[in-house]
Design goal:
By secondary structure, the chain is of the alpha+beta class. It is 39% helix and 25% strand. It has three helices and four strands, in the order βαβαββα. It has a four-stranded mixed sheet with strand order 2-1-3-4. Strand 3 and strand 4 form a beta hairpin.
Length: 75
Amino acid sequence: MKLEVLGTGCAKCKTLLENVKKAVETSGKEAEIVKVEDIPSIMKYGVMSTPALVKDGKVLFSGKLATADEIAGML
């Protein structure tokens, strides 16, 4: 699975990236985790508010900060 954390580098975006890493680790699943900071790349997903999380090309959520437990439930 490929997980993309969309965000330009704000504190919430960095926290979401760490929460995604924790969620993958605790879930026991394997995933490629990518941080996307390029605005045109973020816009391709139609995301207007960051941070956002994309799983295999599908936006799971945007504009909020999810906990590691919430993210693990989405995987």
